[in-house]
Amino acid sequence: MLRIFSRVLLLLTLSVVSGKGCLAGGILHAFAPVVDGRSIAVARATILLSKTLITVSESSAEHRIDQTFYNNNDFPLTGVFLVPMGTDEIRGSPTLTIDGVGADFELLSPADFFGTLKRLTLDCKDPSLLSLAGQRVLVVRDVKLGVRQQKSFRLTYHKPCRLMRDHEDVLVRLDGERYSRGPVGELEIGVRVKASRPVRAVFSASHHISVFREAPHRCLAVVRHEGVPVRRHFHLQVLYLGSGLDLRLFTYRQPGSDGAFMAFILPPMTVATERQPGKDVVFLLDSSGSMGRKHLKLAKRAVTFCLERLQPGDSFNVMVMGTRVKKMTAGLIQATENNVRDAARFVDSVEAVGGTDLYNGLIDALELFKSKRGSAAIVLVGDGRGTVGITDPALIVEDAVRKNRLGVRLFALAVGESPDMVMLGKLAEATRGSIARCSESGDLAAVMNRFFGSVSPARAVDIALRFENVRTQEVKPHPIPDLFGDQCSVVLGRYVNLHDTVANVELKASVNKRGRTVTRSFVFPEVDTRRPYIQTLWAMRQLAELVERSLLKTSDAGIRKEIHELAGLYGLKNPLGPRSGRKAVSGRERDPDLGVILWTLKTSRVPADAESEAFRHENAKVFRRENGRWVDVRYVPNMPTVTFRFLGEGYFSLLRQAPEIGAYLALGPHVTFLHGNTAVVIVSDR
Question: Residue 162: pLDDT above 80?
Answer without folding.
Answer: no
